[in-house]
Amino acid sequence: MTTEELRLNIEKALDEIRPFLQSDGGDISLLSIEDDRFVKVQLEGACTSCSVNQMTLKSGVEMTIKKYAPQIESVINIEA
40 has which bridge partners? Predict the structure, then answer.
Protein backbone atom coordinates (compact mmCIF):
# COMPACT_ATOMS: atom_id res chain seq x y z
CA MET A 1 0.00 0.00 0.00
CA THR A 2 1.45 3.36 -1.01
CA THR A 3 1.57 6.29 1.39
CA GLU A 4 -1.25 7.97 -0.55
CA GLU A 5 -3.40 4.83 -0.44
CA LEU A 6 -2.71 4.57 3.29
CA ARG A 7 -3.81 8.17 3.81
CA LEU A 8 -7.01 7.58 1.82
CA ASN A 9 -7.81 4.44 3.81
CA ILE A 10 -7.28 6.25 7.11
CA GLU A 11 -9.53 9.09 5.92
CA LYS A 12 -12.20 6.49 5.04
CA ALA A 13 -11.90 5.06 8.55
CA LEU A 14 -12.26 8.51 10.10
CA ASP A 15 -15.28 9.20 7.88
CA GLU A 16 -16.84 6.01 9.25
CA ILE A 17 -16.38 6.98 12.89
CA ARG A 18 -16.91 10.74 12.53
CA PRO A 19 -20.76 10.62 12.71
CA PHE A 20 -20.57 8.91 16.12
CA LEU A 21 -18.20 11.59 17.43
CA GLN A 22 -20.29 14.39 15.93
CA SER A 23 -23.48 13.04 17.51
CA ASP A 24 -21.83 13.73 20.88
CA GLY A 25 -20.60 17.19 19.86
CA GLY A 26 -17.08 16.16 18.88
CA ASP A 27 -14.98 15.51 15.81
CA ILE A 28 -11.56 14.26 14.76
CA SER A 29 -8.85 15.45 12.37
CA LEU A 30 -5.97 13.53 10.84
CA LEU A 31 -2.72 15.36 11.59
CA SER A 32 -0.06 13.01 10.23
CA ILE A 33 1.04 9.47 9.50
CA GLU A 34 4.51 8.65 10.82
CA ASP A 35 6.60 5.88 9.22
CA ASP A 36 3.39 4.37 7.76
CA ARG A 37 2.78 2.86 11.23
CA PHE A 38 1.66 5.61 13.62
CA VAL A 39 -1.31 7.90 13.11
CA LYS A 40 -1.55 11.26 14.86
CA VAL A 41 -5.03 12.68 15.22
CA GLN A 42 -6.65 15.50 17.12
CA LEU A 43 -9.92 14.99 18.94
CA GLU A 44 -12.02 18.13 18.77
CA GLY A 45 -15.06 19.74 20.37
CA ALA A 46 -16.70 17.78 23.18
CA CYS A 47 -14.17 14.95 22.68
CA THR A 48 -11.36 17.05 24.16
CA SER A 49 -12.93 17.17 27.62
CA CYS A 50 -14.75 13.84 27.57
CA SER A 51 -13.72 11.52 30.41
CA VAL A 52 -13.75 8.47 28.11
CA ASN A 53 -11.86 9.98 25.16
CA GLN A 54 -8.92 7.57 25.57
CA MET A 55 -11.33 4.63 25.39
CA THR A 56 -12.94 6.19 22.32
CA LEU A 57 -9.50 6.65 20.79
CA LYS A 58 -8.40 3.04 21.34
CA SER A 59 -11.67 1.10 21.07
CA GLY A 60 -13.31 3.19 18.38
CA VAL A 61 -10.83 5.19 16.34
CA GLU A 62 -7.81 2.88 16.45
CA MET A 63 -9.87 -0.25 15.85
CA THR A 64 -11.62 1.33 12.84
CA ILE A 65 -8.36 2.61 11.36
CA LYS A 66 -6.75 -0.83 11.73
CA LYS A 67 -9.70 -2.33 9.86
CA TYR A 68 -8.84 -0.14 6.85
CA ALA A 69 -5.06 -0.11 7.35
CA PRO A 70 -3.85 -3.17 9.29
CA GLN A 71 -0.21 -2.05 9.29
CA ILE A 72 -0.99 0.84 11.65
CA GLU A 73 0.43 0.08 15.09
CA SER A 74 -1.13 2.86 17.13
CA VAL A 75 -3.19 6.02 17.03
CA ILE A 76 -2.03 8.97 19.11
CA ASN A 77 -4.16 11.96 20.08
CA ILE A 78 -2.30 15.28 19.96
CA GLU A 79 -4.04 17.75 22.24
CA ALA A 80 -4.55 21.29 20.98
Answer: 32, 76
